[in-house]
Amino acid sequence: MTAANPFTTRDVDAIDQALHLADHAVAALVDEAMLTPKPGLVDLRGAGAHHDLSWPLMCASACALRSAFAQMALAGSRIADDDDLLRRRIGAIGRDAEATMMAASGGINTHRGAIWALGLLVTAAAATGPDVVRIAARAGRLARIGDPGAPASTGHKGERACIEHGVGGARGQARAGFPHVVGHALPMLKLARARGDAEHHARVNALLAVMATLDDTCLLARGGKKALAAAQDGARRVLAAGGIATPNGRRAFGVLEARLKRMHVSPGGAADLLAAALLLDRIERGVAVPATTMELD
Ligand SMILES: CC(C)(COP(=O)(O)OP(=O)(O)OC[C@H]1O[C@@H](n2cnc3c(N)ncnc32)[C@H](O[C@H]2O[C@H](COP(=O)(O)OP(=O)(O)OP(=O)(O)O)[C@@H](O)[C@H]2O)[C@@H]1O)[C@@H](O)C(=O)NCCC(=O)NCCS
Ligand SMILES: Nc1ncnc2[nH]cnc12
């Protein structure tokens, strides 16, 4: 006698979809970590303006988050008719994911902003299908819902920078429906590919398009308004010179990179939003998940 299978075909499909979205999220984080060159950030050349990070650590942190992203995506498809409950559920998974990240990184903040952004996006994608505008809009709606399980204050540097400088930070970006992802990174990725930039150049240009106008609390917390202005101005100059694929753009990129290095600052928020854009790009294009990421757990 065989035991009855407690799972319906719908359950199995939802689990498959959740794992697939989680693999996309991990792959997007790994692609972001390894993208080279990035100004002030960890890349294959080194730790940029950071003293405690490296690309293998960023990749290990990304891989450790697979299960959390899958749980969020599963919640997104299962709790489709009660957004308040869904918000509470993914808040709890997100806080657990932050603890998982800290355990994987030995206590270093590798991906807090990314858990927030990509977590909301995989949750939304599980219920909307591959339309990136709808995914970002639904993620924004979820981010605007209060979470009674969240502490009144995180006490993090980002929150303090938001109060001090009057900016929205990671929360504001999500609540607005990820305008820098949908309106800056993804269009630049498409434009750069269309004009024949190599894929890694297209991705660097997408990062610069985010940096050019983002109120990045990672920069503000470390170097104040001066650092933010240097990053925004430098990114605009590279893009105005034709982007990283051109000789003038590369020269401007060198100037930007040297300036951020001197100031010991890094655009960590823009890096998270690039990863968010790479996630949506993968979903939109129906990219096959590479076998290496499928086998990570
Ligand atoms: C909502 C939370 C993200 C908490 O936000 P809060 O502002 O309170 O905390 P921070 O962690 O300080 O800031 C958020 C991180 O988001 C990134 N970021 C910054 N600006 C923006 C922006 N404009 N738009 C989007 N994202 C932004 C940025 O992350 C990157 O920087 C980190 C590295 O910074 P670094 O200075 O090196 O490290 P620190 O440890 O801070 O300092 P040092 O000691 O090393 O000097 C790196 O992690 C990048 O990811 C900001 O840091 C969220 O945590 C929250 O409330 N979660 C609760 C769970 C939940 O509700 N989840 C919902 C489902 S997902
Ligand atoms: N590549 C990177 N370097 C530093 N901080 C980051 N946060 C997210 N990605 C990052």
Summarize the entry for a quick read.
With 297 residues, this protein is an all-alpha fold.
Q: What structural category do the secondary elements indicate?
A: mainly alpha
Largest sheet: none
Tally of extended strands?
0
Q: Count of helical segments? A: 14
- Per CATH, the class reads Mainly Alpha
Q: In which range does the helix fraction lie?
A: over 70%
CATH architecture: Orthogonal Bundle
Q: What is the averaged pLDDT score?
A: 94
Protein model, in words:
The chain has helices at residues 9-34, 55-64, 66-78, 83-105, 112-128, 132-143, 157-165, 169-175, 179-194, 199-211, 217-240, 247-263, 268-285, 291-294. With 297 residues, it is mostly helical. The protein has one domain: Orthogonal Bundle (Triphosphoribosyl-dephospho-CoA protein), CATH 1.10.4200. The two termini are 33 Å apart. The model is unreliable at 291-297 (pLDDT under 50). The chain binds ligand LTSJ6FE6 and adenine. Adenine binds next to α1 and α13. It is an enzyme of class 2 (transferase). Belongs to the CitG/MdcB family. InterPro entries: CitG, TriPribosyl-deP-CoA_syn. It holds the Pfam family CitG.
